[in-house]
């Protein structure tokens, strides 16, 4: 269910009034059909979430088409014009390079890069956020960028939540408990849910869930009895936290308002949109 400012909303109304594209239509229909209640303080926050989720899907597809290679950290590589290689196989933004330029170069010159699936997910997140918020805010929020595994800037406000309600733009995880120890890179696969039953995992490509599971099962140890599976969790950026920086809005003042994150549970528990460490005033 979807609630805005204390009132339940029909997804067909949003579809008609907001001109939603196919990905965004799937998002609101999945929200409306779920037992989870998605609650927003204002329509602007939901509208921003739909935009950012759409960019997450587009960024995942763009990274897939960029030519970036799959590798472990030992064999990772990047464009030395923009990035320095760390000892652990990560990428550190060179001094004086704006974060936006470093991220855009990965998509424009993907064949110069190689990394594993977790770092690829963070790259997708940064690219989608760049497409959704004001560039000046992106440069300020994500200065001194390092790309390595699940290391990310706190201003992404990432949260991994237990849920079976998967929405396009969610980052999911396919676990492979009986993976072949000689192929540790296939102990699981991080994947962006693209909608329409498709998922993008760096190294595995764009696949359906059964195909992703079959791919991982091919990389199990001899005699394995347990199948790979899709974990009941989703990793999401702080949509409400990032919404004040929306590139379709003017400058908005905000004040620090540190507080606990609400728990996200199934059946009758509402999801609050005030996610993150700041409270804003428009």
UniProtKB/TrEMBL annotation:
Molecular function (Gene Ontology), one example: protein-glutamine gamma-glutamyltransferase activity
Keywords: Sporulation, Transferase
GO biological process, alphabetically ordered: sporulation resulting in formation of a cellular spore
Keyword Heme: no
Protein's UniProt name: Transglutaminase
Alphabetized HAMAP family for the sequence: Tgl
